[in-house]
Design a protein that fits this description.
With 326 residues, the chain is mainly α. It has twelve helices and three strands, in the order H-E-H-H-H-E-H-H-H-E-H-H-H-H-H.
Length: 326
């Protein structure tokens, strides 16, 4: 019987973002524009760091490149399916597709979480222990830290995905969310999941709080060190190196708290609006936070544009000489 229930639930139904049909296409175009900004902004940062030897060798920008890649994946897991729902009214998702979406969503979200903690540790070493920075944050160690972030995030997602396999689902297949999220999906199961839900909830809080506590401790040490700097110019320089990362941390954990620490009395529509902030707005704003106040990224962008113009000019001269104009 459980097998039959499991087979019947091969397709789930995702909720609409708007119950008024005249708003569907307008919302679809808005979110499509936001998605393009997210992908283009983050891929631009990846391209700038990868093509600039100075930035690529700096641990902070090495981590930032992986953070931008995780943000692209994070948005790409949920937004295309949501756009398909809004623009073409395709609300169904297969059981395997739902588990895959949940797995990759959790992987990219947790990678973001871990990378922000690693970046805070990098800033702590740079400001509090500058003499040890070169050895403690060597390229080999940075590779190891990034690999650990991706590996832990993937293993964590595997654990949550495996929990779903033995469960059977009843006649109700509508997920009260615009993507496949673990806890809304778990509540659709027929069998008793109270123990699994409690253990998963505790584990998820630990998974979020451990990196957050590391970030708080790192910045507490950073601010204590900054206060001991005698010159105002030195303090400003130290603060400027942390400003962009601190802004992303506030945005990430602020939206995370808004999504998951709200009372259970909220309607499904309110939950979806909160999730939109977390899945779309945060990855879209991260590139702007890092580029607007970061002089090194701006300088890298100017160098990149200069190389493109030089290459175009060289190509034009080469073509002109071959065609006989020069």
């Amino acid at each position: 019987m459980a097998k039959q229930n499991h087979t019947d639930s091969s397709n789930f139904i995702l909720m609409d973002l708007s119950f008024q049909s005249e708003h569907q296409h307008l919302l679809g175009l808005l979110f499509l524009s936001m998605y393009f900004l997210t992908v283009l902004g983050n891929l631009l940062i990846v391209l700038l760091i990868s093509s600039d030897a100075h930035l690529l060798q700096t641990p902070m920008y090495f981590f930032l490149r992986h953070l931008s890649l995780a943000d692209v994946g994070f948005a790409s897991v949920t937004v295309p399916k949501m756009l398909q729902n809004l623009l073409f009214q395709v609300r169904t998702i297969s059981y395997s597709g739902c588990l895959m979406q949940m797995y990759f969503y959790m992987t990219f979200a947790n990678t973001d979480n871990y990378l922000l903690a690693v970046m805070a540790y990098d800033r702590y070493m740079a400001i509090c222990h500058p003499l040890l920075y070169a050895t403690r944050m060597s390229h080999k160690r940075c590779l190891l830290l990034v690999a650990i972030c991706w590996l832990l995030a993937s293993l964590n997602s595997v654990l949550y995905t495996l929990i779903m396999f033995p469960l059977s689902f009843c006649s109700s297949k509508e997920i009260p969310q615009f993507f496949c999220e673990f806890f809304p999906l778990l509540r659709l199961a027929c069998s008793d999941t109270s123990v699994i839900e409690t253990i998963s909830l505790i584990e998820s809080y630990i998974d979020v709080l451990a990196p957050f506590i590391l970030i708080v401790i790192s910045y507490a040490c950073i601010f204590c060190t900054i206060l001991r700097v005698p010159s105002t110019k030195g303090k400003q320089k130290a603060i400027s190196t942390c400003g962009s990362h601190l802004g992303v941390v506030v945005l990430f954990y602020g939206t995370l708290c808004w999504v998951y620490l709200q009372p259970n009395s909220r309607s499904p529509e309110q939950n979806m609006i909160s999730s939109l902030m977390y899945t779309m707005v945060t990855p879209m704003l991260n590139p702007f936070i890092y580029t607007l106040r970061n002089m090194e990224i701006k300088a890298a962008l100017k160098r990149f544009i200069g190389r493109i113009k030089t290459a175009d000019l060289f190509q034009f001269l080469l073509c002109s000489s071959k065609s006989g104009f020069l």
